[in-house]
Amino acid sequence: LKLYATKKGHSVLLVEDDPATGRMYERGLQQCGFRVTRAVNGIDARARLDGEAFDLVVTDLMMPQSDGYDLINTIAAIPVAERPPVIVVTGAAVSAERQAELADNVSSIHLKSGLTPRGLAERITELLNV
User: Would the pLDDT of 21 be above 90?
Assistant: First the structure.
């Protein structure tokens, strides 16, 4: 109940190309008190990052036009004091090599299978200490 009862007010950029998955995570995070802005790919996400500061970014890795890897590299170039933490939520297993490449620029990597909106909200809450 604490997860839902506490108003967090933190802004989350959710980058997901699958409409159904995006809606599911968006609704779940909003129910837990997060302000959610959705982007459908890395290009859309970069445009939103240029216009607004976010407390955290949740991104898929495999997307059309510009994938999550490009987005993560873009976020890594933001000055540390302004850089939002990044959580990766992906449908495909990430190899150990790719995990090592991402380690310095992402807070955590999670598989979509079995990750409920509540589970995602719990991870965000822990990361942001709210």
Answer: yes
